[in-house]
Design brief:
about 210 residues, 2 domains, five-stranded parallel beta sheet, coiled coil
Length: about 210
Amino acid sequence: MLRVGYIDEDEGQRNSFHHLFKDEFEVILFEITEETNAENLVDEVLKSAIDVLVLDFRLDENGLVDFNADKLVEGIQAINLFYPLVVLTSHEVDALDHLENAHLVNGKDDMLDSKIDIFKQKLRSIALDNKRKIESAEAELKKLEEKRINGGFDSKEEDRYVELSSFLDQTISAKGRVSRSFYSEHTNKKLDDLIGLAEQMLNKMPDQE
């Protein structure tokens, strides 16, 4: 059973989400209290081993915290750019103004009511697609690694090796599986350049605070 996480400052909304999804997903609810801060909540999410995360956009409505979902999305994607998540909100215009990726935003009233079956299918698709991409990248990288050890590969294969390694370096489930000691000095430089470029792109994103 796929594990879906849900973040909402309203306990009643969390309970409703659990009731609606518990038969088809293992639901992990993240509690928000006055002691909750964005950094710790991001860390809790990344350690939870969920398959997809759903966030309510406005988390500051009851005054428990002073941040909204955009702050959490920013923190998660700074560590894992490809983390599977969606944002639910009844304030879509506000969310679209604060989130870089408009595709993350979903209307809360529709998705938890008239379109709930579509939303469940969407969550399954997001989670399974992410799993497939990671598994495919790991399998292809393993073959390239074996080829490098047994006889080496050409520059095109090395570029692909770097591309796959860069992708896996930015995912939680695969982080640390590929040892840099396997890379040639040239490959390591390419990988560092790719990671540096990704960091530059993240740093250039407008500040949403």
